[in-house]
Automatic annotation (TrEMBL):
Full protein name: Phthiocerol/phenolphthiocerol synthesis polyketide synthase type I PpsB
Matches recorded under PROSITE patterns: CARRIER (PS50075), KS3_1 (PS00606), KS3_2 (PS52004)
UniProt keywords, alphabetically: Multifunctional enzyme, NADP, Phosphopantetheine, Phosphoprotein, Transferase
Region (Disordered) residue spans: 927-950
Annotated Carrier domain residues: 1469-1544
One record GO biological process: fatty acid biosynthetic process
Organism: Mycolicibacterium poriferae
Residue ranges constituting the Ketosynthase family 3 (KS3) domain according to the UniProt record: 86-517
Signal peptide per UniProt: none
InterPro entries: Ac_transferase_dom_sf, ACP-like_sf, Acyl_transferase_dom, Acyl_Trfase/lysoPLipase, Ketoacyl_synth_AS, Ketoacyl_synth_C, Ketoacyl_synth_N, KR_dom
SMART domains: PKS_AT (SM00827), PKS_KR (SM00822), PKS_KS (SM00825), PKS_PP (SM00823), PKS_PP_betabranch (SM01294)
GO molecular function ontology, one term from the record: phosphopantetheine binding
């Protein structure tokens, strides 16, 4: 042994003579395995690696191997004891998440992947992900230049927005507010504990400490950019202190919980403090961690300015090319225990921490400048604390940032303290993982530590990546240092291999840790088993399936060489057992793999017990079946595998032979067939008794018994009513006497209740009811020919009926001839009082029976009252176990239990199954009885093998900070000087030319067309559609509503095209007809598609002809696209001069177009589509263009409304000295404002008048130029009415909305013809531009006002219509749920005082006819609107902001294809699963298990944004533009699925007819209206408010 150690391990004889331990001599686990082989061969007998631990010195081991007596070393078996302050600390687990995964978009996850990364010389450095810092682009040249100047290189984690919130029981909204560093640390901590083999729940309420290094608070800064979004979760979500506390809270750790921020040394300082906590006894287990994310470019820019960043994008540690470092991200966790505790617990020790130290630079040459003296001091302190000679460390994982100043200082400190005195040919080896990962800052220390631990494990030191030329400022030879330029085998040195790890904070906090190789583990032997059971657990059934798939994949890949028993040991004893679990029992690896894959797919397979769906009430009933369950070979495998079964059979055998006359064991052991009552009944009874003892041996005992027919005899023995001998006597007599009647009877099973059976057997005199199996299964018996007649008649009526394999008509009058003999044979029977409840199937179940001869005669003669006994037992007991070689009563038991009030509280299982592996089947059924906690399984031995960590089911969680940038503007313009209005609030509706697609493959034009228009249009449509398999019905535009409604019901397409002079000046009639058509169409189960054709409703430029009355149809159409997209086609505007035939051709072109455009204007034959863009208003020509004439009166209509007062103030600020404020009932609401403005020189005159009444207003206008100054400007800001759906809208609703806006505007327009004005400003809304669900009439007033402004401009009159966004005063009036719903709509509140100042741009001669002022989160708004309509009007605006145009929906989606490929009967189930998955995703859930398909979405906590997301995801995945109201109209999974089934051809085609499908999910024509009842009143009002704003 001395020769071997000197030759192979580099030991010196002096060390060995001194009696050094094997560990001190550097004998590691691998060395011990090799040496055992050498010694085994040398001494001629097997030597175990365990011997090295039990006899830890050469002398002791040699003495043991040569036969001498020596006391083996044993661990301290004592209980709690104080820890020594210098006790070594074991590293027993690692969790790792670093950048640099094997593919470009992956991360390094786990120690094995990290070692592969290091071994393959990979680098994690790349450019910053494209969207990572996009938020910081403020759109200014200076901001863009600053961002462009920030170093782009870094080491960045992927998917930092993804997190498994469900696993950690965190609601989605809180998860979104949580710093992703908290989320990372939670996941990686769990992975580290699994790597350590410690079930996380076993540490709950224990002294487990968490010491986490972290220094970045970028996420909190992101979340603070919008104070409106700061909520109750922001504080804990963004706090650095919570990073450690969050881990302690979730896992319920009771030890210290500290977040350490010493910048770059944070995680190594955390490691130091964790070791101290273990040594002082504050912790029994400690987690040392570090986490770092770079969410802001600010830190990088700061380091750029300090010239610390590498322009080449690499950390060239100790290299001549050193030019700075690269920042990086990551998370690492080390699980630590005192070494003695780890050895006691059988933990797998990865490495041992000998000592550590921390100090500070103090006042160096600068706060960020290193201090050589301090670095040397921390090294000396660490080695002194460890009790290790500095020259006995082999390798140092250095701080090594690759800076010109830092590397030489660190090298000199290492050389002075650790290199001094070393031979020239044995220098201290150096490396730095920063060359691979970059500088992970707060996680840098744990990254270097993990590298060193893995190097010790693998006896190999990874190369310093990219090292080429030594730094000329470092005298490596003199300092006895050498940088690892290539992977280096870690040669033994006659002592434990050791490494040091350094980490220095940029504020001067230094840390150094010394680790050494782990001691030889002490294996423990496990209990051998013939079967292996894998317990696969998870928090949900879906997670269990995922875990099963992961295990199966690993077992056929990286884990192919790991034994099944070792896998089971880790899985069952070193993993948290979650609430949901399944089991796979297997005899070999192939069976286990098959079971795992079946479990993953939700399929049944031998040995597999899926996740329990019910937890039965306490109490177990053993049910003993009658004949029919026997098969050749039953029980034979149990005899070989199960000692308890073999012992029971051995006890039964002599009594069995005595009473029955043949050997039970011979039949079981030989796998012999059994035939005839005289053989079948006794063998079944003997087997049932042995199976009973087998169940008992695994702790499953009966609380009551039931027997079916002959099974009552076994039940009586088990209950203690009969002795074994008496029981066998009864069965022997019963079977032999019954055998005399063999062939004289027949037995049949019918799937009918007892009353129906009695009716069917009435004509067959010998046939009687022989047994009541279940409420729907009855057994009859009688003469064979009569039983066959009953079967034939039942079969003819399509009733299930079949013969049972019995030739004796027991339980009927045909048994009467032998009853006397049976009574005589059992006359001397001596029964006892049962010790267990016996539920008789002969008498009433709850009646106490006397088990004498008369009872057993009745047992043969009377019908079996089985279902009654089961029902009675179910009142007190939950689990029913059929004791038989094959289950024959499972279905009757299940049917009986299903009819009870609480079937979910019961469970029925069997014992064995015909022609299967008995042992596997028994344990499968045994496992099935474990519904609340997994079954106990045997331990295989320690240390355990590591398994892959639990797979995560992540979803996106990220705070959506408002964009900092100012959106690009689409048209030149300018704002007034010192404008406070953000430029991006200004938009313009434009009409770019968009030709029809070259190949029109849109909707078919054939069908039943209804054209409501002047005759010329109807005739043109009929001509164009001739030959298209179409019919055209034409109605005049003035047709009666009843006629229109009836005609719409028969149409597939409807065109409404009023003439240019129809509807009068205001368009009331046009809107009413359009609304009538739309409402009628929306009510149809298969609604037609509606197209609108208008004349000059949408002028594109000033001077264009403009018809304001026709414009109301555009407001209606834009709302229809959102409220009823199922009926919406398009609205097309043409000049009134266009002939009907041309206009009709253009309409049909749009039907065929298929490009999703639904707002078109044709001018001079060119096709134009609506597009909203950012555009500044035209530049004012001098300051006069922004001021008002002080010599004239300015008239405000709607003065007491929400905006009226601030409008008056703005007019005064712009120079108005006389303002007339009109309101129907002004009262004194403007008194304070009047008084305040009077002090500033502006007179406010309040006038009570009806602005929509021309006579009332004329009286006021007559005063202008008389007692009032001449009129200078008119400002219409009135509004009335409220939201209502199109189908419920009444004439009164329309008048209430139209009159104060449209009528008032027209009155003002006409009266100002006699009173020329310089300003005519109409306040309208963005709702008219985009449409607004439930506000079609409001949108119509906006489009009317817009076109009226164009009409005035075409006449040379001033006018400007302003489409305003959401006023903050309106938003502030909202509360709670309503306020949140508005915030999520995408429209952002505009400060009233800021927004109103935009008026300065719209009062001069340069003012456009139409302007838009709106604050919006356009992507969010678009996401909300795109769930209801394609809304291409936003395409240009979104493209300008994000460069991504909205994609059109297509019915050719992946899910639709899967639906087509699916078998027709499965399609509804597949659609239901899809809807459940989409609902869960929209609500931020990773599982559907909490969703009840019958409960309303809003009861689950769905909010408006979630409903938007759900509608969008369903629309996209189904390729259908679903109705805007779909989530509200069908607010449960069941209702929504039924609705979708009614519109998807893949399901309609399999259902017989559309009506059949459509009726499947609704309760009648009022179902849609009734669905609103599922919304609470505040939720409904919130929806209304959201649309209104």
């Amino acid at each position: 042994m001395v020769d071997y150690l000197v030759t192979n391990n580099g030991c010196s004889p002096e060390q060995i003579d001194a009696g050094a331990s094997m560990h001190d001599l550097g004998v590691g686990s691998r060395d011990a395995v090799v040496l055992t082989g050498v010694l085994s061969e040398f001494v001629g007998r097997t030597v175990s690696p365990v011997d090295f631990w039990q006899y830890p010195t050469v002398d002791a081991l040699a003495k043991f191997l040569t036969g001498g007596e020596v006391e083996p070393a044993t661990p301290d078996a004592g209980g709690e004891r104080p820890a020594a302050l210098d006790e070594p600390v074991a590293v027993i687990g690692l969790g790792i998440r670093f950048p640099g995964g094997p593919d470009a978009d992956g991360n390094i996850e786990g120690p094995d992947a990290y070692w592969d990364f290091l071994s393959e010389n990979r680098s994690a450095v790349g450019e910053v992900p494209p969207q990572r810092w996009a938020h910081f682009d403020d759109g200014t040249p200076a901001g863009a230049a600053a961002l462009a100047g920030v170093t782009r290189w870094g080491s960045f984690l992927r998917d930092i927005d993804a997190f498994d919130a469900e696993f950690f029981e965190i609601i989605p909204r809180e998860a979104t507010r949580m710093d992703p560093q908290q989320r990372l640390l939670l996941e990686v901590t769990h992975e580290a504990l699994e790597h350590a083999g410690i079930p996380a729940d076993s540490l709950a309420e224990t002294r487990t400490g968490v010491f986490a290094g972290a220094s970045a608070g970028d996420y909190a800064q992101l979340g603070a950019t919008d104070l409106n979004q700061v909520d109750a979760w922001y504080g804990t979500g963004g706090s650095i202190s919570i990073i450690a506390n969050r881990v302690s809270y979730f896992f319920d750790f009771r030890g210290p919980s500290v977040t350490i921020d010493t910048a770059c040394s944070s995680s190594l300082v955390a490691l130091h403090l964790a070791c101290q906590s273990l040594r002082t006894g504050d912790s029994d287990v400690a987690l040392a961690a570090g986490v770092n994310l770079l969410l802001s470019p600010a830190g990088t820019r700061s380091l750029d300015q300090a010239e610390a960043m590498s322009p080449t994008g690499r950390c060239h540690a100790f290299d001549a090319a050193a030019d700075g470092f690269v920042r990086g991200e990551g998370c690492g966790v080390a699980v630590l225990k005192r070494l003695s505790d780890a050895q006691r617990d059988g933990d797998r020790v990865l490495a041992v921490i000998r000592g550590s130290a921390v100090n500070q630079d103090g006042r160096s040459n600068g706060l960020m400048a290193p201090n050589p003296a301090a670095q040397m001091a921390v090294l000396r302190a660490a080695y002194a604390a460890a009790g290790v000679n500095p020259r006995e460390v082999d390798y140092v994982e250095a701080h090594g940032t690759g800076t010109l100043l830092g590397d030489p200082i660190e090298a000199r400190a290492l050389g002075t303290v650790l290199g001094k005195g070393r031979p020239a040919d044995a220098p201290l080896l150096l490396g730095a993982v920063k060359s691979n990962l970059g500088h992970l800052e707060a996680a840098a220390g744990i990254a270097g530590f993990a590298k060193a631990v893995l190097a010790l494990q693998h006896n190999r030191i990874p190369a310093n990546l990219g090292y080429q030329n030594p730094n000329p400022h470092i005298p490596f030879d003199k300092l006895r240092l050498k940088v690892i330029a290539e992977h280096t085998e870690w040669a033994p040195a006659g002592r434990p291999r050791r490494a040091g790890i350094s980490s220095f904070g940029f504020g001067g906090t230094n840390a150094h840790v010394i680790i050494e190789q782990a001691p030889v583990p002490v294996p423990t032997e496990g209990v051998p088993t013939v079967l292996t059971t894998l317990v696969v657990s998870g928090k949900t059934a879906e997670r269990v399936a995922g875990q099963a798939q992961m295990l199966a994949d690993w077992m056929t890949g990286a884990g192919a060489d790991v034994s099944l028993q070792e896998i089971a040991h880790t899985l069952n004893h070193h993993r948290t057992q979650h609430a949901k679990f399944a089991t796979v029992t297997a005899r070999d690896r192939e069976q286990a793999l098959a079971g795992l894959r079946s479990l993953a797919l939700g399929q049944s397979a031998p040995g597999v017990v899926g996740v329990p769906t019910r937890v039965p009430k306490p109490g177990t009933v053993f049910v003993y079946s009658g004949q029919g369950s026997q098969w050749a070979g039953m029980g034979r495998q149990l005899l070989a595998d199960e000692p308890a079964f073999a012992e029971a059979l051995a006890e039964i055998e002599p009594v069995f032979v005595e009473q029955v006359g043949f050997s039970l064991r011979e039949i079981i052991e030989g796998g012999l067939p059994v035939n005839g009552d005289a053989q079948v009944q006794p063998v079944l009874m003997g087997l049932q008794l042995a199976l009973t003892e087998l169940w008992r041996s695994y702790g499953v005992h009966p609380d009551a018994v039931i027997g079916h027919s002959m099974g009552e005899v076994t039940a009586a023995v088990v209950a203690g009513a009969l002795s074994l001998a008496d029981g066998l006597k009864v069965i022997a007599a019963r079977s032999s006497i019954m055998a005399r009647l063999a062939g004289q009877g027949a037995v049949a099973l019918l799937n009918l209740d007892e009353d129906a059976v009695r009716a069917r057997i009435a004509g067959q005199s010998s046939v009687e009811v022989a047994g009541y199996l279940s409420p729907r299964q009855t057994v009859v018996a009688g003469l064979p020919e009569e039983v066959d007649a009953v079967i034939a008649a039942a079969t003819a009526d399509n009733v299930f009926a079949r013969r049972v394999n019995m030739v004796v008509a027991s339980h009927t009058a045909l048994m009467d001839p032998v009853l006397g003999d049976l009574r005589s044979a059992l006359a001397d029977l001596e029964p006892s009082i049962p010790t267990l409840p016996f539920l008789s199937t002969v008498t009433a179940p709850t009646t106490a029976a006397t088990f004498d001869a008369d009872y057993w005669v009745a047992n043969v003669r009377q019908p079996v009252q089985f279902s009654r006994a089961v029902a009675a037992a179910a009142g007190e007991h939950g689990t029913f176990i059929e004791i038989s070689p094959h289950s024959t009563l499972g279905q009757p038991i299940a049917d009986t239990l299903a009819d009870l009030d609480d079937p979910s509280h019961h469970l029925a299982v069997g014992t064995l199954a015909r022609d299967s592996d008995d042992t596997v089947t028994f344990h499968t059924h045994r496992n099935a009885t474990h519904t609340s906690r997994p079954p106990h399984t045997a331990r295989h031995g320690e240390p355990h093998v590591p398994l892959p960590t639990t797979p995560w089911r992540r979803t996106r969680h990220w705070v959506e900070a408002p964009p900092r940038h100012r959106a690009p503007v689409g048209r030149g313009g300018a704002l007034p000087a010192e404008s406070a209005v953000p430029p991006e609030w200004f938009c313009e509706l434009t009409w770019p030319e968009k030709p029809l697609p070259g190949t029109a493959e849109g909707a078919a034009v054939d069908g039943r067309w209804l054209v409501i228009a002047d005759p010329a249009v109807g005739e043109a449509m009929a001509r164009l559609l001739d030959g298209e398999r179409s019919s055209v019905t034409a109605l005049p535009a003035s047709a009666a509503a009843e006629t229109v409604v009836e005609a719409v019901g028969n149409a597939t397409h409807v065109l409404y095209a009023p003439g240019s002079t129809d509807g009068g000046a205001l368009g009331y009639e046009l809107f009413e007809m359009g609304r009538t058509i739309a409402a009628a169409a929306a009510r149809r189960p298969a609604p037609p598609t509606l197209y609108l054709l208008t004349r000059n409703a949408q002028p594109m430029a000033e001077g264009d002809r403009a018809n304001a009355a026709q414009a109301v149809l555009w407001g209606l159409g834009r709302t229809l696209a959102l409220e009823h997209p199922e009926i919406w086609g398009a609205v097309v505007d043409v000049d009134e001069s266009v002939p009907a035939a041309v206009a009709a051709r253009w309409v049909l072109g749009e039907v065929r177009a298929g490009d999703g455009e639904d707002q078109l204007v044709y001018r001079a034959g060119a096709r134009h589509a609506a597009r909203l863009i950012h555009a500044l208003p035209p530049a004012p020509a001098g300051t006069d263009a922004e001021t008002l004439d002080p010599e004239r009166t300015h008239l405000v209509i709607g003065a007491t409304g929400n905006i009226g007062p601030i409008l008056i103030e703005q007019l005064a600020a712009m120079g108005a000295t006389t303002v007339v404020a009109v309101s129907r009932n002004p009262g004194d609401r403007l008194a304070a404002l009047t008084e305040r403005l009077a002090e500033k020189g502006t007179t406010v005159i309040t006038a009570a008048a009806d602005a929509a009444d021309k006579a009332s207003m004329r009286a006021l206008f007559d005063r202008f130029g008389a007692d009032l100054p001449p009129l200078g400007g008119v400002y219409l800001a009135a509004m009335s009415g409220g939201p209502v759906t199109l189908t419920e809208m009444t004439d009164d609703d329309v008048v209430a909305m139209f009159r104060p806006k449209m009528d008032a505007a027209m009155v003002a327009h006409e009266l100002t013809l006699e009173h020329p004005v310089a300003q005519f400003v109409l306040f309208s809304s963005i709702s008219g531009v985009l449409g607004s669900r439930w506000l079609a009439h409001y949108a119509a007033t906006t489009t009317f006002s817009d076109t009226l402004a164009f009409a005035r401009r075409a006449a040379g009159l001033p006018a400007c219509a302003i489409n305003w966004g959401l006023w903050k005063s309106l938003a502030d009036a909202q509360t709670g749920f309503e306020k949140q719903a508005t915030a999520e709509s995408g429209l952002e509140p505009m400060e009233d005082a800021v927004a109103i100042t935009a008026l300065r741009s719209f009062v001069g001669p340069q003012a456009p006819a139409r302007a838009t002022v709106v604050a919006a989160d356009w992507p969010r708004l678009a996401a909300a609107y795109h769930t209801r309509a394609e809304l291409h009007i936003l395409d240009e605006l979104l493209a300008a902001e994000s460069g991504v145009a909205a994609a059109a929906l297509s019915g050719d989606t992946a899910f639709r294809q899967e639906l087509k490929d699916c078998a027709a009967p499965r399609r509804i189930d597949m659609l239901t699963d899809h809807v459940l998955a989409q609902v869960a995703a929209a609500m931020g859930l990773t599982s559907t298990h909490t969703l009840d398909p019958t409960v309303g979405f809003f009861q689950f906590g769905m909010d408006s944004l979630m409903s938007v997301t759900l509608q969008r995801s369903l629309s996209e995945s189904l390729g259908e533009a679903l109705p805007a109201s779909v989530v509200f109209d069908y607010p449960t999974v069941e209702a929504l699925t039924d609705y979708l089934a009614s519109i998807l051809p893949e399901i309609i085609d399999t259902a017989g007819s559309d009506d059949e499908v459509a009726g499947a999910g609704v309760d009648g024509p009022d179902a849609a209206e009734d669905a609103y009842d599922d919304l609470a009143e505040d939720e409904l009002l919130a929806r209304l408010s959201e649309r209104l704003s």
